[in-house]
Design goal:
single chain; about 270 residues; alpha/beta; Rossmann fold; eight-stranded mixed β-sheet; 12 helices; 8 strands
Length: about 270
């Protein structure tokens, strides 16, 4: 094959690989209790409803709870992938909500104290799986532990969740600052959860955005908001997503809007 033709074919193949490369989004927060798991599950359900191949990974390794939220009882988790050499491909399960799911364990102290090599093993397994999906969502733990930072580095899109609480905002900023200083990341997408309305959400976003511009030197991206409504805790109690519980509610419409914004990344 002539060199010029070879280069052309190679570039075509590279473009095809880029097109197939999935969005890998980490969902993190500075503090716990702001709704990361709820948001992850519901965005994943809406992306799957849009025809996307979605994988959700519970990366809160020691205190996993996605399985409880969606009503599944996995026989294998990431614990077996680390300590029993199970293949992550075999751990992933399909759910009634349309997305596939890699569960972790809860209450396993050894999973909360993983070595760097163990986290790399998980990332390598997810890299193998990535070719089969359009979107992979990593539901990380709260705070800035080593595993949280490594999963944020693994992702090509970083989502930070916060709510109206002052501690949520300050801890979210601290998380952004640490990821920026550790990895040089300066692109973060913000979701404001449990807000009264869009105006309040934009006000909260503008506040943290101005702080980042002033002290870190870069702006944030507004990905969307979710209004608080009693439909949210009811859907959690029923172990259902908003898509199947009350798809016409305001929080459901909010989640659908965020999912559409994520689709645009692809």
């Amino acid at each position: 094959m002539p060199y010029r033709a070879y280069v052309t074919v190679s570039r075509v193949k590279e473009k095809e690989m880029e097109h197939k490369r999935p969005v890998i989004a980490s969902v993190s927060s500075g503090k716990g209790g702001v709704g990361k798991t709820f948001v992850t599950v519901n965005i994943g359900a809406y992306l799957a409803h849009r025809g996307k191949k979605v994988l959700i990974v519970d990366c809160d390794l020691g205190l996993a709870n996605i399985d409880v939220m969606i009503g599944v009882k996995p026989s294998l988790t990431l614990k077996e992938a680390i300590f029993e050499d199970k293949i992550i491909d075999d751990i992933a399960i399909h759910t009634k909500h349309g997305f596939d799911f890699v569960p972790a364990s809860s209450g396993a102290i050894e999973m909360a104290q993983l070595m760097y090599e163990d986290i790399e093993k998980i990332k390598e397994g997810l890299t193998r799986l990535a070719q089969h999906y359009d979107t992979i969502i990593l539901d990380t733990g709260a705070g800035i532990s080593e595993s949280v930072l490594q999963f944020n580095l693994f992702a090509n899109k970083n989502i930070i969740l916060l709510n109206r609480e002052l501690t949520s905002l300050t801890d979210a900023y601290a998380t952004i600052k640490v990821i920026y200083q550790a990895f040089g990341r300066n692109s973060f997408n913000i979701i404001v959860n449990s807000t009264k309305n869009e105006e309040e959400a934009k006000r909260i976003f503008n506040h943290i955005d101005s702080i980042c511009k002033r002290f870190l030197g870069f702006p944030l991206q507004y990905l969307g908001h979710i209004v608080y409504d009693d439909v949210v805790p009811r859907s959690i109690m029923k172990q259902e997503t908003l898509l199947t519980h009350q798809d016409q509610s305001i929080p459901a419409i909010n989640c659908a809007s965020i999912a559409e914004n994520i689709v645009s990344w692809q």
